Amino acid sequence: MRPTAATSALTVADTPSTDNSAARTTEAAPSTDDSAQPTDATAPSTGEAAQPTSEAAAADGEGAPAGPPAGDDESRTGGAGGSDSAEGGAEAGARVGAGRPPVPYLRWTLTALSAALIHICLQMPNTLGNLKATEFLRLPAEAIIGAALLLSLPRRLRVITAATAGAALGALTALNILDIGYNEYLGRHFNIILDWELLDDAQSYLKDSLGSTTTTLLTIGVILLVVLLISLTALATTHIANTLARHKTTASKAALIAGTVWITCTALGLQAAGVPLAADHTAGILKVHAHRALDTLRDEAAFAKDARSDTFGNTPPAQLVPGLRGKDVLFTFIESYGRSALEDPLIAPGVTSTLDTDTKALADAGFHAKSGWLTSATYGGSSWLGHSTTLSGLWIDNQQRYRTVMASDHLSLTKVFQKTGDWDTVGVMPGVQKTWPEQQYYGLDKVYNAFQLGYKGPKFSWSTMPDQYALEAFQRQVHGKKRDKPLMAEIILTSSHQPWAPLPEMVGWNDLGDGSLFKPIQQAGTDPSDIISDSTRSKQEYGKSISYSITSLTQWLERYGTDDTVLVFLGDHQPMARVSGTKASRDVPISIVAKDPKILDKITNWNWTDGLQPAPNAPVWKMSSFRDRFLTAYGSTPHPTN
């Protein structure tokens, strides 16, 4: 029996176009009914005609399109050009609809998702404040230029270009997210030249805050997400490139219209909710990173020259700090002790109350203080930049500058005392848990790290031991021993390091022992994960940690200070933006405390505030200016090096 035209069309429709059996079926059973031949050139029934006959089919590099263009439903079901009844055509169409997925809809859904991903990546901001819907309503110039470029390329080069550009866009998006994190925690953008090594410190911080297992899982998850993002953007741009090529004429017209609209919006300054409609955001981000990298490289050479110039570099030992001879001088840094601790309404009441109480207690013990403000070179973290800026007299706001000055002969404030030969110099560094080559630059004869203070108690998140214990260990191992010379010490207190949970509590000084008594306090403390994403609780716990550190230090001074003790203590930087606020200054408090009135008389012209709490309008100096001001105040004679 001779096959009907409907049967022949159904055979072709039910068989994938890449399967040659379709061609064999139609050749084996040709129809003599001319009216049964397809009238639509895009849906041939012969095996030969089933091969790609247009640029659109070739664009995807497939034997045939994955699905016919929208509007070709009749040719796929055999409903047009058949001589059989309408009932036969309807039956064939129903069978086709049941046997094949709606490929066109899947393809256009994939195209829409790919376009959305690319658009989001092109418009991804690098600050949390700009992460809002209006940022994604803009028309990106990079998309228009990219479409025009891809349309002009042959297939192989188009695919390579699209995949490479997509992967680069994914990497840039990951960098923008990293930028957001750096802005939130450190108050600055990520430096692609210098900051990669800080990621290791971030991982160590997470281990101490959340535990090793959680940190390992988070690290693996972040790496997988970055790889997935880069892969997806590469696939998305490749898919969009092939889609554009299949519809080259339409795509070319659309690109031309979009370009015209972009130019018009730029010329007229059109905006939506205060945001320009025409954007070149990605190009701008790349330009910023390029300039930042070039500035970093130039800065390295310029700063190396600055580090070789020193106002007191050639000063003879006998002419250095004569006004402090015979005094025990202690330079103490309190972690994250910033201006917000004294001025933020959610933090300040507890901290200022502590300062007032401790000022009175010190006065009763015969000590007096003057306080001012310094503007730190760092913010939210990287404490070593604040320490080195204060003690070197150089502005050290990045890792490259830090490495440069640590390798230089520039005279640090602490090394001044070693250079005179009249002081024993030590460092108390409970946060140091490995080799610390900076000891030489700071001129410290001996350094007591986390493992040399005799502590047997638990860690309090990042902090290896409570400040009260570290100070008592300093008294027992150093300050309380008889010496032939006075003492100069650099002390770093760490209990106020984020995430501020769990926190230690003050205990009896005579009960400290080896620190084991802190175990139940640590176990009963707040879990870091409970406050790490809660701004209000973070502020509250931060304030408690600052009060604890100040109380530990002032009680130590009351208990063990002498007529010859001179204490300089200050913050190294403000806490991160989630606590200090996005518009917070970089100011930190600094105080000088002594019994001998001549010590404070020498800084009367500084106009600092009496007591431990600087007035809001007290002088504010750059942190890098403190070294020279201090050396000058206490009688050092400048002899510059060039």
TrEMBL record:
TM annotation in the entry: 160-178, 217-242, 254-279
InterPro entries: Alkaline_phosphatase_core_sf
Region described as Disordered: spans on this chain: 1-97
Residue spans of biased composition, Polar residues class: 1-45
Composition bias type Low complexity, residue spans: 49-65, 83-97
Keyword vocabulary terms for this entry: Membrane, Transmembrane, Transmembrane helix
Top-level taxon: Bacteria
Name by which UniProt lists this protein: CDP-alcohol phosphatidyltransferase
Species of the source: Streptomyces muensis
